[in-house]
Amino acid sequence: MHRLEIVAAHVSVSPAASASSPLSDREVMEQLQHLMDADNHDNRQRIFRIARQHRDLFTPRFNVALAAHRELAYRRLKTLCEGGVVSVWDFIRNPANVFTVHEAVGILGDPGTATKLTVQFNLFGGTLLQLGTDKHHGIIPDVDTFDQVGCFALTELGFGNNAVEMQTTATYDPHTDEFIINCPTPLSQKYWITNGAQHAHWCVVFAQLIIPSLSSESQGVHPFLVRIRHNDRRVCEGVTIEDMGFKIGNNGVDNAKLHFQDVRIPREHLLDRVSTVHKGGKFESTVQGRRQRFVIQADQLLSGRLCIASMMLGQTKLALTIAVRYSQSRLCVGPTGKSDTAIAEYQLQQQALMPLVAATYALTFFMTECKHKYAQLNALRQDKAAPKDQIDALRYEVLLLCCAIKPMMSWHAERTASICRERCGGQGYLACNLFGEAITGAHAGITAEGDNRVLWQKVAKELLDGVQKGWKNRKGLADTGAGEGPVRVSRLLAKREVMKGRALGASMLKTGGNSGQIFEVWMRQEARLVQELAEAFAEKRCFEAFADVVFDTKMRKLQPVLLPLLDLYGHMLLHKDAAWLVANSLLTPQEVGELPPEQDRLITQTGQHMGEYIEGFNVPKDLLFAPIAGDWVNYNDPKRPMHGELTV
Amino acid sequence: MHRLEIVAAHVSVSPAASASSPLSDREVMEQLQHLMDADNHDNRQRIFRIARQHRDLFTPRFNVALAAHRELAYRRLKTLCEGGVVSVWDFIRNPANVFTVHEAVGILGDPGTATKLTVQFNLFGGTLLQLGTDKHHGIIPDVDTFDQVGCFALTELGFGNNAVEMQTTATYDPHTDEFIINCPTPLSQKYWITNGAQHAHWCVVFAQLIIPSLSSESQGVHPFLVRIRHNDRRVCEGVTIEDMGFKIGNNGVDNAKLHFQDVRIPREHLLDRVSTVHKGGKFESTVQGRRQRFVIQADQLLSGRLCIASMMLGQTKLALTIAVRYSQSRLCVGPTGKSDTAIAEYQLQQQALMPLVAATYALTFFMTECKHKYAQLNALRQDKAAPKDQIDALRYEVLLLCCAIKPMMSWHAERTASICRERCGGQGYLACNLFGEAITGAHAGITAEGDNRVLWQKVAKELLDGVQKGWKNRKGLADTGAGEGPVRVSRLLAKREVMKGRALGASMLKTGGNSGQIFEVWMRQEARLVQELAEAFAEKRCFEAFADVVFDTKMRKLQPVLLPLLDLYGHMLLHKDAAWLVANSLLTPQEVGELPPEQDRLITQTGQHMGEYIEGFNVPKDLLFAPIAGDWVNYNDPKRPMHGELTV
Hints:
Number of helices of chain A: 23
Structural class of chain A: alpha+beta
CATH superfamily of the largest domain in chain A: Butyryl-CoA Dehydrogenase, subunit A, domain 3
Largest sheet of chain A: 6 strands, mixed
Oligomer: homodimer
Distance between the termini of chain A: 9 Å
CATH topology of the largest domain in chain A: Butyryl-CoA Dehydrogenase, subunit A, domain 3
Largest interface: A-B, 109 and 106 residues
Number of strands of chain A: 15
CATH class of the largest domain in chain A: Mainly Alpha
Strand content of chain A: 5-15%
């Protein structure tokens, strides 16, 4: 088998000459890193320690056969699990850790490992924990160690964005007290099932629950725990598993199509937190209505979106770290025509990279807010005394946040990876420099756990519903002590959201609640506004999360470092939607004209400290496997002793 | 060896119900296809015929080992060459064909084959033809049949965008009447050399020409024909060839690092159209100055940019064809909640895809103009009677066009592939549906034959120089009989270019011609404006090329079909730069506000004929290897007889 092994270069890159910054103070840098790392700092470092201890295993490999690629991702995750870095119980004890682990694994640069992680712990383990009851929790210790591998079968070939219409059935048989699982059509095959093609023993199968004695109609989609492989990995009877084959990326993941034919499972394998089927066929549910039941059952997709966003954040920090370090060491034409000037000093390079850096800072703080809101919600749910309307309000906000940040973060990850690739030129095109996996990893994030555009439809819908219910999604910035500039940006962003929301609301009102008309207007007339409203919400919340940190009085030492980035981010947001803002009299043409030069000024100001801002991401230098992040000249020396590794 | 074979589905997709269009008239459609295919129609079809005759060979394969992947690309190109679809002599006899072949090979969906093609015929063959003299042309017949394979070694590890500073030397030895080729440092390795790692027998090596009896200084960069492999593929003495390894895409291409140590070649192997070294060391050159000599020697990069743009155009047409056909057959939630509505009918899908379709039409016509201008220039150069100032003026325009269209087209190809992938969801993520190769293929295009951003610096520089020399780059639209709307857009685009040009010119004037100051302003203060000026030029020319076709009186039947696309494209261009246009009083805020609804109207109008517009691309249905472009339900049927091919 041919392979290309990557050797980490341990040589540090000397930063471009630059004016001094508060970040050259070690203490300030450490404070920044601590802030950016958000929570579970020790555990994050533990993950990196494990990767160091198993350096060979975690070294990226390319041009490996599919089976070997999957074995690599499996072993990487198994090694992390054996290190005890995460548990399914964290959803109750320490939810933020679930997401932080995703980010740290994202930093390790293999989206395949991160994807297997998220299915095992969030979709499979999390569903077992939250939709199952005590009798289903027995295997959680083996899930934590990855000894029992699980998968999650919601999506069907024909039903991606309309899963409530799925066709797989679980029919109750009172004679044997079992459910019988069937996929009646090609369109009802379970599709894209991560961990399914090689490793999973268990599958949470979503199916239409049918109790013939009650009705031939479904009682709605419910989750069932189904064994699909024996412990020795033989596939169980009635289960057909087909490998999805080669993908544009993430080939460490063993995605499968699953097909069930008369697969019988004990009645107790219905995950029965929401609905119960009693012996003989009596049906009870705490939730009325098929669609509502589905929404509750698919709840784990919510935390799933935070998991995806977290791993996207990790891979974005990695990509930017690699690109900036190369930019600092790559010399090209200077004032005299000689190749003596680091490309990091070019305004072109700074204008490409610094906006991505600023957005990554903003999204880091937005991520922190989302994680903590999610954790708060989980804590509230454990609290028997918590008032229902408080839970409902928080659940509403968490729903909005999860559906807002995943699209924003995954698109940002795609743009970042793609632009970093481009700005590193040919070097960026070599697989060993890791932008390829970042681009295709981001693509997986864009349509995983809900197509980004569909999630933004959800955000817009929830915002309109929320207005009707009188929910406020956030207070605004004015009272946080923020400076005039950010307060103004925040006001503009809030106003934009309200105006776009009102415009969409007015269009929807005209439908008179007629469902055909609602479809017509929502899907065929106002698609642009629907997306814009969600974007306005997401960007406003992200900006405010960033501003909250910058103006936190405990952050005084960091303020001079963070404020120009916040300022830059605010200008970027306004500039991006300047056409709408000026057309709606929120900015004057003159103000619009002042945005680009002001951005340029901020980019030049922050760009000279590019390397220090990247250090804030705290990506361990010794785990930067990309040769261009280190001494790439030596790496390319034909006389270098370890040279043979490059040949394939 | 594991592999995934793709089976073409021959089943046609029924278009979404739609109002009738002039394009349902067979004759109109054929006229459109003929127009879009531009030139060399028979040869284009011959390429598709060869692919059909060698269907197995041209069927995309994934998860193949690197060596096998390269063998595939090699055999595909060899088969096309044996079919006689292109000759190096076409640069003189029929230049448009060189580019058309690139587009058609792009449509076949393997960027690796297209890349090997462009190096063999343009960079290697073309340089041999145009910089060599009769004595070098003997091997051209074997280059045409791909029996003798060539490569082109300009780029060095340390000198990508500053190749004039390269370090490889060719030193004349009067005792043996030979040149001695040397790479003195790791940075001077020839890097990224396509065809180098496995197949090339010959290499055009660019090196600093040193004639010790004249000077220890270089006489400038010159091209030398160097044998690097014997006919049996053994590597020649003194040549070290290292495989570049796995890349993020284009893995059918055998890229190499080449290192030369004391490699001796006959004096006659200097390609001596520009400079000659006589026996004993007398040096003559038709061009004065090192940098100017380099520019002339690297001339083949100009046509190379049209080659890259052409293959990008082909892959873009393919990606859109696949995405639209899937959109027409993929059913999702409809007015009643059932999955009964093709996603092509969603405004969301139309708003994602139709702007790409409109831009692809525009770029097709822009491409046609560029090809024909290039052909005109080559014809003029053959014509001994042609006046020098006419050649100079045309060369100036061709230079601008080549440096403008390659960036525009390759970025468009990247965005198209990426958005098509996203809008096809999970299906788009399967390698067999071909968006992965399209994304990474586009990335190769973005930095090949000149980094896009560097080329746009070149465009801006040439535009400023041209203004000083009094060159006009084009007449404008007003006198073409175009309607009021397009004339207005064209005027705005022309005005924008002039204003941005003036602003940049004014900044540069302030430098007083001081070279340090020029660098400071160009590279560190006005980088945004430099890029914007080039973009303004490129977009103006592209829009005008489109408008010229639409208002060509011979195109009357097509006008109702093309005009709304032109209109949409014009609105897109204005909207993209609305912030600048409104800040500079070229649009009022109200006019800016009218752009999005008007775009939406045009998208809805054209979107209902999405399928017909795609048919205009004339991508052969039986060569659409992506399963989702055909009957993907049957392809996924677990009971399908040929099912076994999917397993890996």
